[in-house]
Amino acid sequence: MPSVRDLRDRIRSLKNTQQITKAMKQVAAAKIRRAEIAQRQARPYADALSEMLRDLIASVGTIDHPFMKPGRDGAPRGLIVMTADKGLAGAFNANLIRTAVLAQRTDPNLVFYAIGTKARNALRRLPQQTAYAVPLSAGPKIEAARSVAAKVTDDFTAGRVSEIVLISAQFVSMMSQRPQTRSIVPVVAERRAATTGPRAEVEFAPSPEDVLTRLLPKYLEFTLYSAMLETDAAFFAAQLIAMSNATDNAGKLIDELTLAMNKARQAAITKEMLEIVGGAEALAG
Predict the structure, then answer these.
(1) Nearest to residue 9, comparing CAs of 261, 255, 250, 267?
(2) Strands 130-134 and 111-115
């Protein structure tokens, strides 16, 4: 049985840990608000961009842009793995990395692109070489999105990869964040549902083909940027839940160890009293 001193040291250590987890919980709660605001502010632009892309694709017959054509036959797929830079968020990063590892097992010829320090470190252990890696939060996210978009565009147009697939976190709610896998290049034209009512006529200048040619690179950049914002929000939500659970668990352990320490102290006091009484009885006899 541990001594009173050992139990007291463990309780002190747990209280220090509880203070750290409580502080990290408060920091995550503050940061997730900012991440949600940034994601909410970017949503109208994303909706407008998607709507414009659909209108343009519906307006043009054919367009000579690499993003609208299938990739080179026989080339490997490119997989962008997006995680956070830090941990202490439960299984958040592990779930994203596990999704990438499962994809690698089914397709050993993948070319990896890492966004986030945790993704970069995990992909280093795989036999495939990571073609490009950037941290998620080292600077402005839009700059990181542009650099990754430029690299994958280079590889796709040169025929080094046949498709660009993105694995990132989907922010479902504060309690739920799950990995999502989606193909972002080549761009597949969506079929519009048939409408009986009149539709507004949209005019593009200089021409729909020219506008679409300039818009597609922006589409890739903003898709990555939007995924970064969502990954940020999902990470802080996961960290908030993890630190809240850690704080509660530390409190329960402190209560259990305090009870054990009180029992050990009481046993030590009882033992001393019995020794004193026994000594007095021996002297009296």
Answers:
(1) 261
(2) parallel
Cα separation, 172 vs 128, whole angstroms: 31
Place of tokens 């964040």: 177
List phi, psi (to 5°) of 64. -95, 75
Whether residue 10 is contained in a domain is answered as no
Question: Is residue 109 situated within a structural domain?
Answer: yes
Report yes or no on 275 lying in a domain.
no
- Which tokens go with 236? 């802080």
Q: pTM to 2 decimals?
A: 0.84
The reported pLDDT for the residue numbered 54 is 76
pLDDT at 285: 67
pLDDT tens digits along 89-109: 999 999 999 999 999 999 999
75: CB partners within 8 A, 6+ apart: 159, 160, 161, 162
CA atoms of 227 and 164, how far apart (whole Å): 14
For helices 141-157 and 208-284, angle between their N-to-C axes, nearest 10 degrees: 120
What is the extent of the structural domain holding 141? Answer: 44-188+202-238
Here the CATH number for the domain that contains residue 121 is: 3.40.1380.10
DSSP string for 130-180:
EEEEE-SSSS-HHHHHHHHHHHHHHHHHTTS-SEEEEEEEEEEETTEEEEE
What is the mean pLDDT of the segment spanning 106-120? 94
CA 198 to each of CA 55, 82, 190, 201, 282: distance values in angstroms, whole numbers, following the listed order: 15, 42, 20, 9, 109
pLDDT in tens, 186-214: 887 654 544 555 555 556 666 666 777 77
Q: Structurally, how many domains does the chain consist of? A: 1
- Dist. CA 271–CA 279, nearest whole Å: 12
CB 103 within 8 A of CB 79: yes
